[in-house]
Each structure stands twice: as structure tokens, then as C-alpha cells.
């Protein structure tokens, strides 16, 4: 099944554009789990089951697993999602950027080893860095465009030939690069004006929008700026504000409540935005 | 010990600017090793010992290990280099690019878990992506600047405010970003004119130069363009042309011969370039 089809079907089925990011910072995992055989696994499994009803996607962040040498746990978490929640696409947040045979290895890592439905990639080295992922025609390739951090402006907002770097990335990603139709873009929620620019340039690409929650982005502004013509097309990510909603035995129910509330805020923002468009 | 000090000391001690890249593509590992308990380990250890006399650095490419789920082997390879060849710096080629707590996890992965002396990073998301690595003041941070692939021009060669993106990266890396003095730049050997531009902008930064050997870059042109005022400052990488010099039982001695020949070609290019400068 194509990544975009799986994403659209799930978004519709549960009426949610919320993606929950799995960033299992060991220091913040509840103490009572730390005697388990694999605390990261216990934590992630509980979070996944608790928030699943409210999400259109999961986004595990590979850095948290890699820092601990917990790649086997990441394999296990994704396999668990695929088995227990097969309708929910998994976006591996890896921001890989390399070329040729090396990039093919990273594509294999994401799609064969981890069985992700999509992966995030960095475009600094150009189209060559995207091609190896496009060799998996059903998989999503979500390219960094305008990120949510202040330093994002250092490169992404530079103007060349009348357009910013991030606008150029959006144009290339929506046009010549999108040979599979499975490309998406990362656009930070802290930059609603930039989300609107990207949506204009790339009317039908899925936008992965980090930066609500812990990073403080405004849900209403982001959703109003980023909806596509069908009133969808956004994957709005929250990580720490959901998964670390409570530091104790109540962590899973607190995560579920936070996910539900965030989903509801996104739903309400969508209704408002669609009403405003009429 | 500072990365730059370790690199300079090693470069002088063996009169070599050759770095050997460890890209253990499983398909290309000699057949007779494939019944070993850990063929990638057997291969890498033999290559490391064979080429060590001729190199200023090793550059393991993490993608090859990650695609196979062989992170433990990568840990073992780097630990082996640190134990048996402690004077040779290890550059982890990871091209990571992320921000905040996620980037701190990648820094931990490179410097704590793998014990690398330096890591390659991507600058697309700006200075925020570099800062977490600079929190390890003795470690090298080698930033993508002008890469050796044709698509590198898609972003890196765009002109903004009268300078290309790669020139801007070189200027920032040589200036405000270099708070530790341990920053280096990746500049592909296939672009000698760009190497010369970068050397002018960043007179004293170490340049990691991939693209000789399998990628076809000209050693003489690259060395002439990239030497610093002391006639050094380059880390010239060859991976596949050295480590897969022979496909059979002779692989280690063939790798040693290829490394020696490449070191000699770089030495000769340096002598020529320094003579030309007089």
C-alpha cells in the first residue's frame, strides 16, 4: 500500500491529523519502569497502545534509540505497531542525508530493517540524496524544508534567484523530484507564514509539522496555513508534550489524555479554518 | 587531546594525508570470511591492521553498519582502533542533522557510545544543528560544505547575497560557528576549484576530501587546491578503492598496497604543489 494512501485512510478513519513522536529520553521514563528488562520497550509499548486511537501516524526518533544502543528496541517498537496497529503509518525520523551506495544503505535501514512506511531526509546534498529512497516506490520520503528552529533561517531562508532555499526545496519536491508521488515536506509549526508559502508551492504534498506542544507553535495558525484543498494533508507532530505528560504510574493515561486533547485542538482548528475558507 | 592536535600529530608522524573509509558492504566482503562468527568484524579488523601504517585517520561510514543491524560491530571496530592504533583519529561519517535534544542524542551516539574523535554533520537546519556537538570541546565536527556528487550543486552552489551556499557555510564554519576551534569541512575531490575557494575562506580548517579513488577525483588538483599555509590540513579519503582492492584471500595485503600507493600519490602531489608555490 502506498504511504500516502495509508496516511489518508488513517487520517479519515479516526478524524485525526495528530502524529505522536516517540522520543524515549531515558532520563524522563517513569522510575517504576526502570527495573523492567527493557524499560524503553515497556515505555514505548504502553505509550503506543494508549495514544493509538487518537493518531494518524507514529514518528519514532531514531537518535534517542541510537544514543542508548537500543536499535533492537526500535525494531521491536515498530514491529509492534505494525502488528497491533497495522493501519497506523510509521515515519522514521532520521534526517539522513548521503549519496550513492551509502544512501542506499540508509534506505535499506529505514525500509527493510525497521520496516518504516516513511523516512525523513535532509536535502543539503541535492537530488542525489533523495533518489535511493525513491527506489522504494510505495514508501514516503519526507524532506526537510523549513524547520521549526530559529537557526533554520541560517540556510533555509536565504534568497537565491528570487526564492528562498525552502521554497526551492518545496518546488523541486512537488515537481521533478516527486517521481513516486510519495514525497512529503517538513515545515515547522512555529512558522505559519512559511507553512502557507509551502502549501501554495506544493498544493498536494503531505506536510509533516513539528513544533506544536513543547516547541510552542500555534495549532490554529499552523492548521489554517497548511490544509490542502481537501481540508487535510497535514501530519502534526507532538512528542514530549504527549509522551511525558506525567512522570509517574499515570504516564500512559496522561499521554492518552494529552493526545486526545491535542487531536481535539487540531480538529477544532480545522473546522475553524474550513469555515473561514467558505 | 584535541581532535585537530591528534590529526596533525598523526599526519606528521607518518607523513600521510590519507584517510581510509570503512564501508563494509557485505556483498563485497571476501567469501572466505563469510563463515566467520562476525564477517564484518573480521574484515574491518584485517583492513585496519593492514592499512594503519599509511593513514592519518579512519572514517567508518555508519550507514553500512546500520543497514545490517551491526552497530555492535561498529563499536567493536572503533574500540579496536583506539586500543591497537591509539594515535589514529576516528571520524564517524554519519552526516547527522537535527536540533536541540535530538541533536544532543546524536552527539552522544558519536562521542560517548562510539568514542569517535570527530563526526560529520549536515548544516541544512543551521547553527542550532552544530551547537550540541560543540559541547564536546575536544571533538571534531566536520560540516558538509561542497560535496563530491553532481546533485551537490542543487543547493550548495546556489548564490545568495553574492556568495554560494557552500561559501557561506565555509565562512560561518571558519568564523562565528567555530567556538571550539575543532570544526572541519567536507569538500569533494571532484571539485578542485571549489576546494580552492573553501581554502581561501577557511585558511586553517581541516578539509575532509572524499571522492578520490572510486569517485574519480584528481589527487594532484585536489591537493594543490586544498593545502593550508603549513602544507597540510587535508584528510583525503579513499574507501572502496582501498578496502575492496582484491575480492579474495589477498584482500588485506591488496588493501595495504592500495593504501600505500594512494598515500604515495598524495605525498607526490603535495611535493609538487609546495614546489609550485615557491
Beginning-to-end CA distance, first to last residue of chain A:
34 Å
SS-derived structural category of chain A: alpha/beta
- Secondary-structure element pattern of chain A, one letter each: HEHEHHEHEHEHEEHEHEHEHH
Radius of gyration of chain A: 18 Å
Q: How much of the sequence of chain A is in beta strands? A: 15-25%
Looking at this protein, list some descriptive labels.
homodimer; 278 residues; alpha/beta; TIM Barrel; eight-stranded parallel β-sheet
Can you offer a commentary on this structure?
- 2 copies of one chain form a homodimer.
- The first copy, chain A, starts with a helix and ends with a helix.
- Chain A has helices at 3-14, 39-51, 62-68, 71-84, 100-113, 131-134, 153-156, 165-174, 192-201, 219-226, 240-243, 251-277; strands at 18-22, 57-60, 91-96, 118-121, 140-146, 159-160, 163-164, 183-187, 207-209, 234-238.
- In chain A, the strands form 2 sheets. In chain A, strands 2-1-10-9-8-5-4-3 form an 8-stranded parallel β-sheet.
- The model of chain A has no long low-confidence stretch (mean pLDDT 95).
- Helices cover 46% and strands 15% of the residues of chain A.
- Chain A has one domain: Aldolase class I (TIM Barrel, Alpha-Beta Barrel).
- The first copy, chain A, is α/β, with parallel strands linked by helices and 278 residues long.
- At the A-B interface, helix 3, helix 4, helix 5, helix 7 and strand 6 of A face helix 3, helix 4, helix 5, helix 7 and strand 6 of B.
Amino acid at each position: 500500500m502506498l504511504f500516502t494512501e495509508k496516511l489518508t485512510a488513517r487520517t479519515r478513519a479516526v478524524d485525526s491529523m495528530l502524529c505522536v513522536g516517540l522520543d524515549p529520553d531515558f532520563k524522563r521514563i517513569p522510575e517504576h519502569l526502570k527495573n523492567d528488562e527493557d524499560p524503553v520497550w515497556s515505555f514505548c509499548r504502553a505509550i503506543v497502545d494508549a495514544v493509538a486511537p487518537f493518531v494518524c501516524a507514529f514518528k519514532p526518533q531514531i537518535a534517542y534509540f541510537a544514543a542508548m544502543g537500543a536499535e533492537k528496541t526500535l525494531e521491536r517498537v515498530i514491529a509492534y505497531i505494525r502488528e497491533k496497529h497495522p493501519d497506523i503509518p510509521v515515519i522514521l525520523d532520521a534526517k539522513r542525508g548521503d549519496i550513492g551506495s551509502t544512501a542506499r544503505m540508509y534506505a535499506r535501514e529505514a525500509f527493510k530493517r525497521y520496516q518504516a512506511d516513511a523516512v525523513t531526509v535532509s536535502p543539503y546534498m541535492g537530488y542525489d540524496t533523495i533518489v535511493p529512497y525513491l527506489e522504494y516506490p510505495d514508501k514516503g520520503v519526507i524532506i526537510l524544508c523549513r524547520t521549526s528552529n530559529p537557526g533554520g533561517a541560517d540556510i533555509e531562508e536565504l534568497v537565491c534567484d528570487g526564492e528562498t532555499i525552502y521554497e526551492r526545496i518545496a518546488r523541486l519536491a512537488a515537481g521533478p523530484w516527486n517521481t513516486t508521488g510519495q514525497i512529503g515536506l517538513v515545515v515547522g509549526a512555529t512558522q505559519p507564514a512559511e507553512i502557507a508559502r509551502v502549501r501554495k508551492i506544493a498544493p498536494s504534498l503531505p506536510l509533516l509539522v513539528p513544533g506544536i506542544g513543547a516547541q510552542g507553535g500555534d495549532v490554529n495558525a499552523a492548521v489554517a496555513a497548511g490544509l490542502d484543498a481537501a481540508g487535510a494533508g497535514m501530519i502534526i507532530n507532538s512528542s514530549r508534550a504527549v509522551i511525558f505528560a506525567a512522570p509517574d504510574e499515570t504516564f500512559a493515561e496522561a499521554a492518552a489524555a494529552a493526545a486526545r486533547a491535542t487531536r481535539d485542538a487540531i480538529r477544532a482548528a480545522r473546522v475553524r479554518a474550513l469555515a473561514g475558507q467558505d
